[in-house]
Amino acid sequence: MVSFMNVANNAILRAHLPERANLDEFGITVINHPLNLTKEQLSEITVLSTSVDAVVAMCVIFAMSFVPASFVLYLIQERVTQAKHLQFVSGVSPLVYWMANFLWDMVHWSVTPMMYPMSYVFSVPSTAYVSLSCINLFIGINSSAITFILDLFENTSVSPLLKTALLIFPHYCLGRGLIDMAMNQAVTDVYARFGEDYSPDPFSWVFIGRNLFCMAAEGFVYFIINILIQYRFFMDHWIPDGPKPHILEEDVDVAEERKRIQQSGNTNDILRIKDLSKTYTGTIIPAVDRICVGVLPGECFGLVGVNGAGKTTTFKMLTGDIDVTSGDASVAGHSILTNILDVHQNMGYCPQFDAIDELLTGREHLHLYARLRGVPESQISRVADWAIQKLGLSEYASRTAGTYSGGNRRKLSTAIAMIGCPALVLLDEPTTGMDPLSRRFLWNSIMSVIQDGRAVVLTSHSMEECEALCTRLAIMVNGSFKCLGTIQHLKYKFVFTLYVIFLIKGYGDGYIVTMKIRTANPGCNPDLSPAEAFMESTFPGCIQTEKHYNTLQYKISSSSLARIFQMVLVNKDKLNIEDYSVSQTTLDQVFVNFAKQQSREDDAIVLHPKAAGVQRYIETIPIKSSRK
């Protein structure tokens, strides 16, 4: 409309000018300018615009609170299943592991490294996701909203200090940076209404420059904190351990092995454990108490004992999973205290619980760990096929590990431990859940490792397995070795002594008599009373261990096997005994009875001094008897 008025006015003006007049020197220009907004109008527009942008910033914070929390799910799962630790044992350094995660996750934003240290707090991935998301929301939204509201008040000295202090949180840096950008744009629009050019640099330090700098710095700092946690920098392992009491009445074989380890410097031992101890925080009794042993090439060393004896704790210290309280150990000459990465290069490890990724197939597992072991790329497929054939996994190699049975999981874990031909293989109860055929497969695989001149340390509850594989054996009780030697040596040394002591304490009691009573009258239950009265009167001190519908079982301490047969045979018809058997108590049965007593207070039975001295040697030794 203004342009049309200008054209019309200029046409009228020029029509009335003299003929020789210069038309360029004459003209009419009309300018239309709106009325200035009032102070109230400007304030309302600015607040509305800034508030909308602040809400948008809050929504961004809300969305970005869930994204970084999701990054720790897989990390927690790997830590809980020990897949991460198994990767470390297979040759991955903690720095490489976390750098790979860091570079992958940093494409999102800087709060991701802050989530890494938080992953150590949780053991359930879903719980971690919900908890960390709520923490991110609380920090991000509340910190940004509080500082934004404080900025609306004049003459407040708290807001600048609070805004500076909250820069340690990446959530605040992001949210407050978005709000500052929105406020900067709103001020620019107000200046433009008055024809002023106001366009400050949004990346300057006073706007979002310090936020961006803090986010970049925090990503680096939180990553360093995570690495320090992984290397246990904040743990108390560097605090010197207090003095320990002198070891009293140690078995002679254990003492000789301790003397050999402490006095000899250069040996051929692949594994060398010297006074290794572990005492958990908040406890006084050590889980592992100054054990000493050396394992030579071509040797399978067995470590047996009841649950809680300290076997798995020993393995965790050897692999670097937990800190050592005192003592040291070396693998192929490398100390677990100072050269754990070199130790991992010479070690294969099958943990007590399967550390496998359920989304990978068995073949993919073996390919992964073969690469970590440094197997040449051209040989990886051949090495994986060798492990698959060796452990009998051909039928399941292409299936995801999540579909494996318990026995197949153990075979896969054992194959991972053996791949790459490490000098030392640690197997923590490898045959748990395996059928007899699979167990034989595994035994043959372990024998091939021994024949190659490498060393194996095996924990097991099966004495049959130890007799089949182990060249030496140690019985571990309450964190210390009670005996050590070959299977035959331990049998020769302890079988007779154990038998005498168990008779004295009433644990073995010589023989087991089992009787089956026939029914005198068809349709009626058999009467067991006469047989019970006969056993109690004929064999004083006998113990009834079982009583069923028509079956009785007794433990008898009599040393005369002939008398037992004679008395039962003479009274067979009188007592309606249909069938009976007499067997000698095995040391496996003795061990079960003894283990039951282990958790109780010591009984009041007084032993002969010599028997008491011997008994202290052989606490809870589960060795099969050798009958003569």
From TrEMBL:
InterPro entries: AAA+_ATPase, ABC2_TM, ABC_transporter-like_ATP-bd, ABCA, P-loop_NTPase, R2_ABCA1-4-like. The chain crosses the membrane at residues 54-76, 88-107, 127-153, 165-183, 203-225. It is found in: Membrane. This is ABC transporter domain-containing protein. Residues 271-503 form the ABC transporter domain. Signal peptide: none annotated. It is a multi-pass membrane protein. One of its GO terms (molecular function) is ATP binding. The lineage of its organism: Eukaryota, Metazoa, Chordata, Craniata, Vertebrata.
